[in-house]
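Re: the 64-residue chain
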Amino acid sequence: MQSIHERCCGLDVHKKTITACIITPKGKVIKTFGTMTGEILELVEWIKEHQCTQVAMGVASHAH
């Protein structure tokens, strides 16, 4: 399969956590962050460190 993006990040967003998966030519890395402002800023820096050019986000809503 041909790669479209060399580096990308997928985010799985929940109420208290965001799990990020970065895929690069060297493989994939998965890390979980909190949802407070400082933790989100840490996530942004982590994505930048891996030189990701594309980010996709999934959010599940469970209404009661």
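Residues 37-49 form the longest helix (13 residues).
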